[in-house]
User: Fold these one by one.
Assistant:
Number 1:
Amino acid sequence: MLHRTVWTMALLIGLSGCLSDSDDTPRIDRSQGPNLTITTIDVANLNYYVPGETIRVDFELVVQELDYPDVDIDFYVVHAQDSAGEGEEIEETHYLGTKRLSKVDNGSVIASFVETVPEVTITGNYWIMAVVDPQNTVAEAFEDDNHPNLENEAYTEGNFPYAIVDLEHTFKHDFAIVNAALSEEVLVLDTPAVHANTALGTNNADMHGYIDALYYGQEVAQAELLVEVMIDGNYEPIEIWVNQVDQATTLDQEGYQLSKPMDFTYNREEHIFGLDLRLTQSQIERLYASYDASQRNTLSVRFEVVDSTDYQEEFDDSNNILDLEVPLYFFEDETQETSGKAAKAYSFDNGQFDVNSGYSNGFGDASKFKVGIDFDSDMQIDLPTGSAHFEAAGAMDLYVFNKANNIFSIDVDSKASVTGENTGVSGDVVLFNKTVYEQSIWRDAYTLDFAKTWEENKTLVQSTFFIGPVPLSVEAGISGEMGMGASLTYEALTLTVTGDLFKASLGGAANGGINTGVAKAGITLDLTVLENVLAMEATTDMRAYDNNTGGPTIDWSFAIVDDINAIEGKFGLYAETYGLKWCKKKIFGKKIKYPCGTKTYHYDYWFYQTPSIFSKHWTIYSESGRLQ
C-alpha cells in the first residue's frame, strides 16, 4: 500500500508540473505543419430545445498547410452533469450529425449545419462537442487537437471548443394523432331508400381510411378510437368495424361498434390503424335532408383517441383530435351503381333484368405502400328473347413511394341464348401491363377454365431515404402470387360461373444499399400487402323457358364474396453509425470530456407498424330469384 501511495503522489506531482502555467512548462508549437482543428462552436439561435426540434450550430475550422482536403466533422451532444465517475463512460451522449466540407482552402473556415435534436432521458445542460477527421483520413502533424484530448495541454486546462445548450426530457404520458385520411377523396353515399335496402343488415361500409397515431411514455399503452361526423351542426359517433383480434376477451363477435381498441406497442413511433366506417340509417336520412345538389356539400369527420390506461392523467389531450372534410354527394340516379365502395343493385323492367355488384377502394398510404382494388360484375337476362349475359371486370393498382403501378386486370364476357345464337365467352388477363391470357370461344355450348398464376418478385420503384444521417437507397416492390381461377360453362340451357375472379397473396419486397462507407444499414420487412380472394357464383337456368303452362321462366342466382386483408405487419429501415463514447475527468479542478472508445448509434425509419389496415370477410351480395 505504501509503495502504491508513493507512486500515485509521484504521478500527480509529474502531472502538476506538466499542467502548471510556469514558464518552464514545455509548450508545443502548433503554428507550423499540416493540421486541422476546431476553434469555436456556437449555437446560432436558441439555447433551450426539446427533442424533435431543429438546432443550428456554427463552427470555425482552421486548416493549415494542407492541399484542399475533404474534411468530415462529427458532432455529439454530451450531458454536462452525468453521474459517471472519473474515467467512466458518460451514458447520456448522442451523435448529432456529420458535416462534410469539400476541397477546403487553408485558413479559417466558418460553416454551419442544422440537425434534429435527439431524444434525451435527462433534462439539463449538454455540451455540443466536435471530432475533426474522425476516420483519420487526413495526415496531420498534430492529431491531438482533433477533439478534446488528455494529451493536449491546452485542453486539459479546459480550453477546448464546445457550446452549451439546455435539452428537455419529454417522457410524458401522451397520445397524439399524426395524420388521418379517408380513401374516398369524394364521398358518394346512397340515398336513404337505397341505403335502407342494401347497407343495413350486412357488413358493407360507407367509408374507409386510416389514422397515424403515436404514444409518448410507457412501452405499451391502450386507447380507444372514436370517429364522429357532423350532422345538423353537432358531432355524433359512427360505427367502426372491429375484428375479433382487436377486441377484449369478453367480446367474441366481430362487427361494427362505436369505438375501436388501439394498442400502442412501440413507444414514440407511429402506429397505423385501419378504418372501416358505417353510417346508421338515421344518419343517412338526416344528411340527405340537408343535402343540396346545387351547392357544394361537405362532410366533417372527426377522429379522437381516448386514453383508456390507468397510468396517470394525460399530459396533453389537445393533440388527440383531428378533423377532416370530404366533399359529399348522394347518388340520386339509382339506375347506376355508386362508386368508391361496395355497390349493388338490380332492376326488372319490360322483361329486362339486370343485377350488378362491385367493389372499389384503396387501402394504405401512397407514400409507403397502398393497394387499390376495383371490381365490377354484372348479370343481364332478356326474358322475351331467352338470353343471358354475364360480365366481370377488375383491376388492382399498387402505390409504392408515391409511384403508381398497374398490377392486375381481368375482363370476362360470356353470353348464352336458348336459340344458340350469339353464344360464347371471351376473356383476358393482364399482369404488370402485359397480356398473359387471352381466349375467345363462340359456340352453342362451351366450358372455359381460367387459371393463370403469377409468382415471383417484382421491383417497382427505387428511392433514397435518410435514416438518421445515413442515406439508404431502397428498391421496393412485391413478392408472392396472384391470378384467378374461374370456370364458365354453358350447357343444357344453363349458364354457370364459379370460382375466384381474383386471388392474391402478396408481400412487400425490398433491398437496400448504403451510399456511405462509414455505416451499415438494412431493412426490416414482414409486410403483407394484400391477401384477397374474390369469389363468385352465378347461374341462369333457362331449361323451363319453353314451359307453356306458365310462360317463359328463367331461374337465376348471383353471389359475390370477398375475403381481404390489406397492409399488415412491419416495414422499416434501420441504420447504424459507429461513433465515439465519451468519458469525463477532472485534473486539478478542470473538467474535461474526451473520447474514450467507440459505440454504435442506431436509427429506425418506419413505414408501417400495423396489425391490419383493412381485414374483412364478407358477402358483398347474394340473392336469387325466378323471372316470369
Number 2:
Amino acid sequence: MRKVLYGMVGLLAFWVVACGPPPAKLQLTLYYPYGEDGKTTFSQIQGFRIKVSGASLTDGSVSADFDSASGSAASVLSKIECSKEKDTAEQLDLQIQGLDGAGQIVALGRQTILNPCGIKRELSVFVGPVESFSALTKFEEGSTVPEQMLQERAGHQIRQLSDGRLLIVGGMTFDAQGGVGDVSNRIEIFDPETGKITDGIPMSEPRAFHSVTVLRETILIAGGLKLEGSQLVSAKSVDIFEITSEGLTKKGSFEMLEPRALHTTVITPTMNHFLVFGGLNYLPDGTVQMSQKWEIFDSKGSSIGTGDVPAEQQRAWHSANLLGDGRPFFAGGMRLDAQGNFEALASTLSLQYTSDDASVTLLPLPNSLKEARAAHTATRLLDGQIVVIGGMVPEAKSFLRPKSIVGSIQMFTALGEDNSQYSGTLKQPRTFHSAHLLEDGRLLVYGGATGPNSLADRTEIYTPNGLILDPEPLLVTQRKDRFLHAGTVLLNGALVILGGATLDPGGAAPFVALSRGEIFLPRPKP
C-alpha cells in the first residue's frame, strides 16, 4: 500500500465564489494507481497544469500552472462565480494534466462536479496515464488502495444516473461446468467523486442478462435469468427505482405478461414510456421459448399497451439503438428454429409507434446484417451512424457457448440503411465484448471471447472518418482479459470497466467471475 506522500500531490484548496456568502470550499486530493503502476505514473510527471471549464465560469475558461512540491494553486478558480441559484444544474469540469519534462501530457486527472455552487466538497481525483488502462483504485485514509465490487459478477448491467453515479445491477457467477452459478439480487453504487463502491437497495429477486433503463429520475429493471433450485428460469418481475434528493429509493415492483431474459428495453419517442422487446423464456421444466409479445409501460409501471411479435421477428440477445427519428433499430440476435435449436439472425427491424405510444407496428427493414450474429454490440456514433461489431453464432443448445465468432464490422446510417461503402474487420474477432463511444468520437472495443477457451487480449480504438472507420485501430493492452463485463463512459470522459469473467487461472472450472475493474483515461480534447 503506497502512502499518500507517494501517490498524492498534496491537498489543494480551491475557493469558488458562490451566489452569496459564505463561499464554497472545494478541496481536491490527487491520487495515483495502486502499487508499481502508481510509482511509474508519478515518476514521469515533472509538473502540472490545471484547466477548468463549465457553465459556472464568467469568462469561459481558466487555466494555470502550479508546482507539485508547493501545491500552490490558490488563484486557479478565483474567477469562477455562480450565475444561477445554487440548486440549479451547474456543472464544473476540472482537468489536471500531468506533464513530463518536455511539457507533454503523460497523465490526466478529470472530475465533473455537478452543482458546485454554495456546497463544500472534498473530492478525490484519480490521476492515471493517458490512453492506457489502470487498475481501479480509491483514496482512503491517506493511502491509494485497490477498489472492487462487493461481489463477483458477470452478465450484469451498469447505468449512469443524472448525478454521475453508476448503478451496478445483478449478475451471476459460474458453476464448475462453465454454466450459470449463483445469481445476484444486489445493486451496488459507484461514486466517481470518491472512487468508492457501496451497497445499495436489493432488487425483488436475483437476475442476470436483464435490462436496466433510465428515464429521467426513474430506473426500470426488467426480467433476466434466475435460479430456482438448480434450474435456470426467466424472471417475470420488474422493479422500479427512483432518484431523489435523499438518494436511491425503491418505488415498487410489478410483473410483465411473460418472463424474459436477453431482451432489450428502449425509451419511446415521446420520452415518457418504456418498450420491452424480445428475449428468451426459460421455463421451470427446462424447456425454452421465444418471448412472443412486446410491452409498453409508463414510469409508474402501468401497462400502456402490448401486442404479438410474429415468429419470424422474434429474437433474443439482439442489439437495440434509436434512429434519428426516435424509432428503435433492432439488429441480429438469435431465435429457436423448428427443431428447438438456437440460430443466429441477420435481419433488422424497426417499429412505428402510434402518437400516444400505446401501440406499435413492426417494420422489417430491407437492410440486413452481412453476417448473422448474436451477442454483438451496436453503438451510435456522434453523427447518428450505428456501428455493429463482432458477435457469435451460438451452439444449438447453449446461448453461452459460441459455435463460431464473428469478426466483421458493419455500419448503418442514422435512418437504419446499410452503408455499403464500408467493410471493416476487427483485429481480433470477439463476442461477449463491449463497445464505448468516447467523448472525442472514437469507438473503443473492449474485451470479449475470441473462442471457446480464448479471450481478446487487446482493446481496439477506431477513429470515424466520414462514412468509414479508419482501418488501423489504436491497440491498447487491457489490465485483465475478460468477457460478459459491463462498462460506461463517466461524465468526466473516463471509461470504467467492472466485473465480467475470465479463464480460471486455477483450472478448477472453465471460468471465474471478477469483482475488480479498470479505468481508461482518453487523451484530452483539443
